[in-house]
Each structure stands twice: as C-alpha cells, then as structure tokens.
Amino acid sequence: MNLVLFLLGLAVGSFINMAVWRVEHKQSILKKQRSFCDFCKKPLRFYDNIPLLSFLVYRGKSRCCGKKLPIYYPVVEMFTGILFALKSLPNPLFEERGGIVLLVLWSIWALLVFEAMFDIRKMMIPDATAIPLIVLAELRRRLLGLPVSEWWSALGAGLFIWILTKIKIKGRQAMGEGDALLAVFMGLFLGFPKNIVAFYVAFISGAVIGLILIAKRKKKQLSPIPFGPFLIFGTIIAYFWGEKIINLFF
Ligand SMILES: [Zn+2]
Question: What is the pTM of this model?
Fold first, then answer.
C-alpha cells in the first residue's frame, strides 16, 4: 500500500513541477499538450518523463541535448512521494467518509507543495492556491464533523501573521498577505494547539535556513527569503507529529 501511495505521490510531484513551469511561463495547466525539452524544445518521449527514474538514469541531464536539469525536479517528486506515503488518516478505508477525507487531504498536500515551490521561485503565494486551501480545510472540517469553533483558531492564526505583515524591516515587508491567508488555512486545518507547533517549527526552521544562506552565500543580510515554504513545512510536521511534539513539552 505504501509503495503504491509513494508512486502516486511521485506522479503528483511530477505534475506539480509541470504546473509550476507552465504557470511561470503563463501557459494553461489544463491544456493538453506534449511535453517539450526546456532547452532545445524537442518533444519528450514518455520515458523521459518518468518521475525520479528519468532524472537518475540520465544523471540529471536532458536526454536530447545533455543540459543540466534543475535539482528541484526530483526533490519535489521525492518530497511529494514521501508525503503521500505517510499515513494521512488512521485506517482511512474503514472509516465512514474516510475515502473522501483522504482525497481532500491529498489535494491539500498537492496544493501546499505547489504553493511552496511557487513561493520559492516567484516570492509570492497566489490567491488561486491560498483560497482553495481554505475551502478544502473547511470541507475537511465538515466531513470530520469538527466544531465551527475551529474557525477561532483560523482567525487567530490569520490575525497573528497579518500583524506581522505590517512590520517592515528597512522598508521591506517581512511577510505578505499570502502568508496571512496561508495562516488562516493552517489554523482551520490544524486547530489549536497544533497550529502553534506549526508556527514554532516555521520560525525555527526559517531562522536556521536563513542563517545558513547568509553564511554560505555571504548574501546581504536582508535579501528576501520567502516565508511560505517554512509555514508549509511547519504545517506538515504539525499535522503528522504535532501531538507527539506537544507531549514532549507538556
Ligand atoms: Zn533538449
């Protein structure tokens, strides 16, 4: 079962890579078209497009012209594969509505990975992913019969990040409105106190990666780093291991 889910995740990851590429190049995601090499525009064969495997076999180069492919392709595929293989629900098949909830969760994982990649590459979170995430979280809340009061957690989380968007460091916004929308999703999806775990993980991991980047590239201290991917990383950690982390401290 887990291997099948891992392979499904790989395929979804591969679709996300394509979606990021198409949105960046202002092409429709849904339009059916053959894949072309990013460099020489030759059409790709099906075996050039096998997630992870093609990258490994051709050692990270395109088969047609030998150009180096971005390392984020296999990383996104691998990450999505692992995310799908993790147990999203306790015994989904035996639970009432388990199948639908699982589909909602998978859609959430796919949108989160897309959003993280888009934020890394374009420094913004598009409303076209932020809003559907909130809708999916609300759908999950209803399917699981969770109380409406979960929205307090959502509004609190959104307000918290929204206040942070007002802070400017040397005239530059530290966080964007997209991050505030993402926080609303996090609050609704995770509930209290798991959302606190998510923010905690986000700030710690953001600080660590920020320091590493500053040390490594000797970048200017204020060169912008998108915060969305850390919020998303925190969300995933809190969803799967939030309770364990809370039990460690209390
Ligand atoms: Zn090529």
Answer: 0.91
